[in-house]
Amino acid sequence: MDPTTWGLPFPLLVGALFVIVMARANGTYWLGRAAAAGTERTRLRRLLHAPGYLRAVRWIDRWGAPAVSVSFLTVGFQTLMNLAAGVMRMSMRHYLPAVVAGSVIWALIYGTIGFVGFTAVSALYERSPVLAISLTVVAAGLLAWWIVSQVRAAHAAAPEDVASA
Question: How far apart are CA 9 and CA 1, in angstroms?
């Protein structure tokens, strides 16, 4: 279903898409939270209280918000990222601004170009699979480089006691 064919005024279209993606993303987050809570009653409880896991939870809670926002630029990965944020129990203080920013970005992109971008990549793939895959790999590499550089810059600016937490 291509939202550019809905015939709605642009602000209403983007608003509707925003509501849809917020409901989906937050639903996935809460499914992750429920799964984590359910493991508290199993043998996996020890794993959820291990020092390494708790360190990872603190790191994700502190630095995972940009990853949540950026995940909305991907197809499929955003669902996994929201699920992981829920499983890792990312605090709402960090998660909500990140999911709102990502949802706004997603709604704007989806509301303006809809399936045009997907159709263009598909057409390029039909003509030259190597070029389409190469461009996708380069774009993913640039995105990964940007995320890593942002995390490193934030880590370098963080006080030592926070960085080791």
Answer: 17
What residues contact 54, with CB distance under 8 A and at least 6 apart?
none
Most confident of 52-56, 70-74, 113-117, 124-128: 124-128
Question: Residue 68: which of 25, 111, 125, 130 has the closest Cα?
Answer: 25
Q: For the segment 56-101, what is each residue's pLDDT rounded down to a tens digit?
A: 778 788 888 888 888 888 877 788 889 889 988 899 999 999 999 9
Q: What is the mean pLDDT of residues 37-63?
A: 81
Query: What is the structure's pLDDT at 144?
Result: 78
User: What is the distance between the alpha carbons of residues 101 and 109, in angstroms, rounded to a whole number?
Assistant: 12
User: Which class for 101: exposed (0-12), middle (13-18), buried (19 or more C-beta within 10 A)?
Assistant: middle
* pLDDT score at 86: 92
Residues with Cβ < 8 Å from 43, sequence gap 6 or more? Answer: none
Q: Which helix (H) or strand (E) holds 29?
A: helix 10-39
Is the distance from CB of 90 to CB of 60 less than 8 angstroms?
yes
77 burial class (0-12, 13-18, 19+ CB within 10 angstroms)? middle
Q: Is 78:109 a contact under the CB 8 Å cutoff?
A: no
